[in-house]
Amino acid sequence: MSTADSELVADIRAALRTAADPAKAAPMRAYMKSEMPFLGVPKPDRVRALRPLLRQRVLGDPHCWEATVRELWDGAEHREERYAAIQLAQAPPYRTWARSADVLGLFEHMIVTGAWWDLVDDVAIHSVGPVLTAHRATVTPAVLAWSRDHDRWRRRAAVICQVGANEDVDVELLASCVLASVDDPDFFLRKAIGWALRQHSRTDPDWVRSFVARSGRRLSALSRREALRVVGPGT
Fold first, then answer.
1. Domain 116-235: which CATH number of 1.25.10.90, 1.20.1260.10, 3.80.30.20, 3.30.230.10
2. Closest Cα partner for 171 from 191, 146, 190, 199?
3. Taking the complete model, does pTM exceed 0.85, yes or no?
4. What Pfam family does this protein match (any one) (predicted)?
């Protein structure tokens, strides 16, 4: 694998420190229930601080790009550095590379090591989702395997990775991922199921109502309520 652009990593960290408001760090950490400390850089300030840097310092090699994302992520001492790694991974200049099936392992690594909803959800929806859409034949089996994994964050990612795909949602895959976790009492999985179904109800309300009805009592009250929040149970 190519060497990471350590200078870019250092510049990103410096930009975050410059934008930091220490008074916000502790409340942000408490809200997120994060073991990793915060610098105190809210998302709008982070995006604004890093956007010019990411535009000016475009990496010219996909392997260097992946290595740089990994270095920023794995070496993070503050949570904003992991947010910055996601921002780098999803930056417009790297869209083609970020939609290659070859980088699914990078996103899986971020999901498993991130292990909390703020990181997992962004990566699942905005990174894994586009890879799945672009490479269904090769990525669908991987997502199905995640849905049955012991790790709840892989499973949550499998359930929600099609959020926002609208007409491109593979309903068979969605149903399989939901049913793989439908009996699990974990709050994050139940919430994810309701969210994924609710989002798809905006595109295909009849399918979602039918799925909820067929699932019966296997769906938790939380998942059912969230799934039907927009469209109701119908007649």
1. 1.25.10.90
2. 199
3. yes
4. DNA_alkylation
